[in-house]
Amino acid sequence: MAEARSRGSTHNSRWIKATPEALYRAFTDPVALATWMAPGDMTGEVHSFDHRVGGGYRMSLYYPLTDTSARGKTSEREDSYTSRFVELEPPRRIVEAITFASADPAFTGEMIMEITLEAENGGTMVTMTFKDIPVGIRPEDNEVGTESSLAKLAQYVE
Questions:
Q1: Cβ atoms within 10 Å, residue 57
Q2: For 18-62, how does the pLDDT look when each residue is reduced to its tens digit (9 = 90+)?
Q3: Beta bridge partners of 130
Q4: Helices 139-157 + 20-27 axis angle, to 10
Q5: Closest CA to 59 of 40, 78, 85
Q6: Burial label, 82 (beta-carbon count in 10 A; 0-12, 13-18, 19+)
Q7: Distance CA 67, CA 40 (A)
Q8: Cis before residue 91, ω within 30 degrees of 0?
């Protein structure tokens, strides 16, 4: 049976003044992820972390109390997910399979996040591509959130 809406995809890039090695560490260190991954005014918490192919992490992103339009996937103010490392190619590429903890079928299924880090002009072009975005997430919202996270990542490593 076909879904009412197809699963989406997005592609965001940002040049960051840091080495691919520093950026790879920011994507594979639980303290770093908790600091920069949550978009906007959200906060993050990494609950578990296993840095190896087949391993992964469990993370929650929390909406601020001041956000009156918050609509979490897991609870009213929380988006919780599990990420499994599919590929780790230091310091150039990371592929993760992400599954949201949600009772809502609009957020089920596995979403793929591919990160590429290419040295360029004294910095690194960071590209994040999402495939198979659950139908409950609008691709344009995913793009805005990813742009915000990339801005926080730049601030974190620069």
A1: 20
A2: 999 999 999 999 999 999 999 999 999 999 999 999 999 999 999
A3: 10, 113
A4: 120
A5: 78
A6: middle
A7: 11
A8: yes
